[in-house]
Design a protein that fits this description.
Helix 1 packs across helix 3, helix 1 crosses helix 4 and helix 3 crosses helix 7. The protein is globular and about 50 Å long. The protein has 253 residues and is mainly alpha-helical.
């Protein structure tokens, strides 16, 4: 799944907005520019609110400004989470760490490579399909099972638990899967603090993974990583170039 995280990070970009609420917090959903400015001060007291593209006043697809802010905040928290997975996944692959069992039913082992993009290129076509279908399912579950939509005042960053009656293996709370009692009884103030930490960690991870990718694509692009990140000969912005997808007419336009 580390390949999944890296691919998702490559396909998206993040918005520089204030921290997003999740389903575990009982605080109100912020939907105005004033709310974003207040929350931005908690994120980074030095920079505070930073919106050079003026996205906080945009109205995407003919919707309201509040709906647009909801979309952007959901996008940021989602991309931040994916980037954190991607950052760790890149390090895992760079150190040749793989699962101990076979990757395929035929007994093929997981590829040992020097970077995550090389790992994506090396896995079978069927594995890429499985990853993308799994991502599609996660997106469907988020959109269909979360109650009020995040563009209509719903909780930003909330991921609904899996219903044991629908998903084999029982329900799974992705935030507190084990579960831990200390997390279950956290106050709203503690939850709010953790949300700020999450969004900051996500922003840092987005910078980190693109630093890895940039240095791999162009040696010396990130001086601090020169000689550490190996060169990658493929095209990081075309993760499906070596697949059957370019051969599908509807996808080759």
């Amino acid at each position: 799944m580390m390949k999944l995280a890296l691919l998702s990070a490559l396909l998206g970009s993040a918005s520089a907005f204030a921290p997003a609420q999740t389903g575990r917090a009982a605080t109100a959903v912020s939907e105005s520019k004033a709310d974003l400015e207040a929350l931005a001060g908690k994120l980074n007291p030095a920079v505070k609110f930073f919106d050079p593209l003026n996205l906080a006043e945009a109205e995407f697809w003919g919707t309201s400004n509040e709906a647009t802010i909801g979309f952007l905040r959901e996008s940021e928290v989602k991309h931040g989470r994916v980037a954190m997975f991607a950052f760790v996944g890149y390090i895992v692959h760079a150190n040749g760490i793989t699962w101990p069992w076979a990757m395929t039913l035929a007994g093929d082992p997981f590829p040992k490579v020097s970077s995550a993009p090389e790992a994506w290129d090396a896995i079978p076509e069927a594995a890429k399909w499985q990853i993308m279908l799994f991502v599609g399912f996660l997106e469907y579950w988020r959109e269909s099972q979360s109650g009020t939509h995040y563009m209509s005042g719903g909780k930003i960053g909330y991921y609904p638990p899996f219903d044991a009656k629908i998903i084999p293996g029982g329900a799974l709370n992705l935030y507190n899967p084990f579960p831990r009692k200390d997390i279950s009884v956290m106050s709203d103030e503690q939850k709010e603090k953790r949300l700020v930490m999450e969004i900051n960690n996500g922003r840092l991870a987005m910078l980190g993974i693109f630093g890895f990718i940039s240095e791999g694509a162009t040696e010396g692009a990130v001086p601090a990583l020169k000689g550490i990140i190996p060169h990658y000969d493929g095209d990081v912005m075309a993760p499906l170039a070596n697949s059957i997808f370019p051969d599908i007419p509807a996808l080759s336009l």
